[in-house]
Amino acid sequence: MDPIVNHPRQVLKFLTTAAWIGLVLWTLVAVYLLSARSPGGDGAGRASGALMGLVSMPVLLIAAALLLWGSRGGPTAAAMVGSALVLIPITLALLITIKVNLPNSLRFTRAPDGRFYDPKLQELARAIDAGDAAGIQRLANDPALDRRQRDSLGRTILGHALARAADPSAGSAVQLDAVRWLLAAGDGKWDDTALAPDGQALARIVATSGDQATALAELALQHGAELNRPALSGSYPLIFDPVMDLARMQLFARHGANLHVLAPPSAGGIDGWTLLMCAVDRGRFALAAWLLEQGVNCQHVASDGESLETLLKGTSLFHSEAPAPTDPDERRFIEVLRPKLNPSR
Question: Is 305 helix (H, G, I), strand (E, B) or coil?
Fold first, then answer.
């Protein structure tokens, strides 16, 4: 028989030890969430993180008191309740994190084939998977191809090619060409329902990192995709997506995006922010320098009181005592900003 099962004291010792470890780790995370102020994440994430840290503190204090009491001669129930206060939330947080993030990380998962009912579509899907350029071109130009049929994942054949090409780890140039050939062989119009019926194909591409995704976004815009649609979260326009870097912002600008737009109230923690403020908050200084050069207002103050100047107070970029930054993007940003802004020191 398992000695742990037969000895409640050993079980309790194991649980309290795990609880103490969890308590220390949880406390470190809570302190970080409360103190984090440097650029690198968006404002909404920072605000929710601070709230999580505040809520965690009383729970951690109560759990620590119960664990101490139980380990120093107090009732066994104290140690058990203290352990539960720590281990149950951590377990739930881990399960929720896996449930939420695993599907996103597998958004462009590679199926063994397209699993279309139409044998021609399935053959084309397999050619796309294999990167068979000649096979793709031959099959994509078949006028009898049913381009509206969806596979078992809800994708059209164009969506299948998009998913393969956008895969950050395995997308190839041939699969990018497959998207181009399918668009050319069809009616030439972008289909935002290609990846899923919800009509967020471009949003899914923009939310994916990598040069392949940037090239796909350019193809989408060239073929009539609507750049003013909401981002994948639905709370702000595509142009405010955290994955938007300099190359993508320039791409959107070439297709008519308004660089002076403010984040809407639905954007939460970045409500009323400029694209420039978001770029600095996320640590994208090459993008921030370019936005300054395009004339984006560096003096704007959002309704929550945040401004470019307040965001910069959380960094050492303009502290006279701080050494010059070694990052070339930060140096370029400072060079462009200094003539425009006189930050408080």
Answer: coil
